[in-house]
Amino acid sequence: MFANLLTKLRRATGGSATEKDFASEPNGALDEILRQARAVQPPPVVWLLGKTQSGKTSIIRSLTGSQDAVIGNGFQSCTRTARFYDHPAEAPVVRFLDTQGLGEVDYDPTEDLAFCEAQAQLIIAVIKVSDTLQSTVFDVLRAVRRRRPDWPIIVAQTCLHECYPADFEHILPYPFGEPGWEGRAPSDLTRALLFQRNQLGPLPGMGPVFWIPVDLTLSEDNLRPEDYGLDALWTAIQQASQVDLDKRLRDETGRAGRADQFTPFSQAVHQQIVGYTLASAALGAIPLVDLAALPALQMKMLRTLGDMANVHWDKQRIADFSALLGPGIITGYGLRLAGRSAIKLIPVLGQTGGAAYGAASGAALTFALGKAACLYLEHVAQGRPLTAEDLRKAFTEALHRGRELIRTIRQKSGS
Question: Is 165 exposed, middle or buried (0-12, 13-18, 19+ CB in 10 A)?
């Protein structure tokens, strides 16, 4: 199928596919290229292990910033009951792997567990703190660690407020993990947390085990903060993950000091940009199509960012963005922005010094273009002016960060 698609594109252009071919078939050629990119460089897999209604959906929401995340909505079956969830869907930076709730009647998880163990790079066991019957979850953790003694395990103890006395608020600052936390937490909560830890006991092997109490609630629950314990969860992920999951999902460097540093919107935008950046990097391993597909991927990314910001790319905005970015950057990086119509945006990666960009450089450029466009769209959406100096600075800084991102992820994955 893919070979036929390439042949069709090459014939249409006299022997070589161009960005226009991919742009003209957004649901055909470009979708196939994205699928190929995912196959070349698959996203890391986070295995969510737990019983039904343990809080796995809340974990996904907290990691992705997506308040619409619902387990069972968007998951694709990979065995009879285990399911993958790619996030973001078109250019994923992570795959969540979920199984049917452990301990359910007439459910034998043997097949699913063997499949999940073979796929995962990180296990997050999710247990509801008020549920004392966790033997099915703990038995799986023990079995996995006997086979894979070096694997780190994160155990998220959820729904803390169910063990609060009436009108009790979250303990601030977050005390868990610090000496003496037992004296600060309500007695029922302390007993529940320690009971589960004692019930699991020491795991086989030498890999670390991270116990993270969290309470990831919704606004209607009237508990503040709604992401209680999230920073501790991120710290555990940074220490446990070998695939730099935090860099894929969060943008600390670019938003330091910003009030919206970790808002769902800022997380979602960053994840889209990283997804398309990784897809761009993967194009170098797909023969004959990387230079043709890269501009189309960038086009799709910018359209997605515009939709997320509720800003429409028309000719005037394209011209404005190009002017702010400046001829120096556009010429220096072989970048050309052109609007064929009021609804068409096609950034084209050309040649610099007679040599085409390599996959890593093209990926870094995708990252920089996305971050610059994000800053521009943010100012347009809020009706605030943006100087050329600020936009060019954002592009240049993001270019370096994009290169570092690709370098780090490739080192972690061994590619």
Answer: exposed
